[in-house]
Amino acid sequence: MLEERRTTNILLLFIVIPLVFYLLKLLSFIFIPLISSMFIALLFLPLMRWLRKRNVPRLVSILIVITLIGIGVFVAVELVQLSSRQILSNNTGFFGKAEVKINHLMLYLQEKFGVVYNTEGNIIGQFFQKENIGSTFDFIRKFATNILMIVFFTILWLSESINMHKVMNNTILKQKHTSIKAFMKIEKDLITFIKVKFLVSLLTGVFTGLACVFFDVSFPIFWGLFAFLINFVQMVGSFISVILLSIFAFVELEPTSTLFFFILSISGVQVLFGAILEPIFMGKSFSINVITVLIMLMLWGFIWGIPGLIMAIPITVFIKIILEQFKGTKVIASLLSGPERSIKPLK
């Protein structure tokens, strides 16, 4: 009887898990802003507690946090506008050189590998055809809607209209003491991750921009901003940044030692900050198996696209800490952490 019940539970688990992921994908327009806002709220919870100790009203505290977030968004918008003006005011003939080199490359691929290539018209202009304008406006509309929803949910989290500790206590852990310990660890680890990731991404962006300035590569502000943003995608972001910037430099620079040392420099920046300093800042206790990182990136990237790639590691940390609280799932948590770490349950 006990064996039959266990088999039934396993079968139900195999049915429920795909259903949960399907619902997460189907309702992504709600879950993406909800989870994103949760991580943002966690980052500002220590500030909220500090203000509360000084008897600052909660409404004023929320307004202070929203103001800080608004300043951050304003700075980001200004950087985007500055990089856009830099690109639009470019008079170095970059787009002409890009047209020539891309045409030569595509003709070579057509001749050697039979790649179909339309030589009529401007290849760069093909990205700005009328049929693409509608999708661009649709993207902007969805992006603005997500931002507004994130702000709304962040206010709910900070005002404790949505209390994550109570949600965990009532739904998952069922024990007040355990849920408090788990929540404190989740908050500590996620805040550490977000702070370190922001600092490492910022340094990566700054030094990538400086490398562009030193080697006289156009649009250093744009590439620095791009490196900063794409670095939030764990592991994959570094490769994308180096590959795209190398292709851009290949178009602009002659294939000499200058191009080689530029590619070597931007690769060194990624290795220094991403592969050396980031693990040191994170600490061994925060380690996650590389295979786990890749699997989670593929899984959440498939479910939620780019937001899923950005949130894959924080979500993994959240799941790992929850799994550590139950005897039956400690082994899974240990596998997520890697062989070098022994799991110690919270008491």
Quickly list its features.
single chain, 347 residues, mainly alpha, 2 domains, 0% strand, globular
Any overview of this molecule?
- With 347 residues, the protein is mainly α.
- The protein has 13 helices and no strands.
- The chain folds into two domains: 23-92 and 135-162, no CATH class; 164-248 and 266-347, no CATH class.
- Helix 2 crosses helix 3 (58-88), helix 6 (164-173) packs across helix 7 and helix 9 runs antiparallel to helix 10.
- The chain is globular.
- The two termini are 34 Å apart.
- Residues 126-133 and 340-347 have low confidence and may be disordered.
Report a brief summary of the structure.
By secondary structure, the chain is mostly helical.
What fraction strand?
under 5%
How many strand elements? 0
Secondary-structure element order, N to C: HHHHHHHHHHHHH
**Amino-to-carboxy terminus distance:** 34 Å
Number of domains: 2
Q: How would the global form be characterised?
A: globular
Helical content stands at over 70%
Describe the sheet with the most strands. none
Radius of gyration: 24 Å
Mean pLDDT: 77
Which regions contain 5 or more consecutive residues with pLDDT less than 50?
126-133, 340-347
By secondary-structure content and strand pairing, the structural class works out as: mainly alpha
Q: What oligomeric state is this?
A: single chain
Number of helices: 13
